[in-house]
Amino acid sequence: MYIKEAAEQAGVSIRTLHHYDQIGLLSPRTEEQGYRVYSDEDLIQLQQILFFRELGFKLSRIKEMLNDPQFDRDAALQLQRQALIEKKERLDRIIQTIEKTIKTEREGGTMTNEERFAGFDFSSNPFESEAIERWGKEAVTKMKKNTEDLPVNKRFELEKNLNELFSKLARCMSKGPASDEAQTSVAEWYRYLNVIGDYSPRAFKGLGAIYVEDERFLRNMEQYGQGFAQFMCEAMEIYADGLLN
Question: Residue 30's domain is classified under what CATH number?
C-alpha cells in the first residue's frame, strides 16, 4: 500500500513515516515515480516500532534492536506484552485512586495516605537503564535508593517540590538562562538533585543536554512552557561550566 493508506492503517501521520524513512528506521520500496510502497513485512516492522514507542523507547534504540541479527520478533512481542500489562495495571490503580478521590471530594470523608497515593510508584523508572548508561550507575543508584526509602507521601512531596521549582524556573525564561534569577534557581535544582543523588557538574551539564536531545524528556519539560527544555539546557550548562572553571 502507499504511504497515505499505511499511515491511516497504523494511526500515525504521513510525516512520521517520512521521518522513519529518513533515519533508516523503516524504508519501504520506492517506485520510479517516487511513491513509497509498504509491503506486509514493512507493516509488521511498523507494528514493532509502535509497540516499542508505546513503551518509551528512543527511535535510535529501536533501530539498533531491529537491525540486530539476533533480534527475535516473538521474544520481543512477549516482552512487550508483559510490559504493557504492567503499565495497564498501574494505570488502572491510578484511575481507581482518582475515582475514589473524586467521590471523597464530592461526598465528604477521608482517605488514608495509602489510599491517596495508590498506584504511584516512583521506584519503577522506565528510563533507569538509560540513565545508568548516560550518567553512571553510582549517581542513579543512590538517587533511586534514597527515593525508595522514603514513605509514599514523602515521595509525592518530592514530586510536588520539583514541580514548584520548575515552575519558578519557567518564570525566569524571559530574563535569559544567564540571568541572576535563572542561575539562582538552577543552583537550587543542582542542590536538589544532589540531595537524592550524586551529580557532578559534568553529569548535571549532560542532564541538561538530554532535556533537548531526548523527545520523551523534551515533551515533559515543554509542559512548563514552549522552549523550556532549551532554556534549561543552556542555564544548566552555564551553571556547570561555572563550577568546572
Answer: 1.10.1660.10
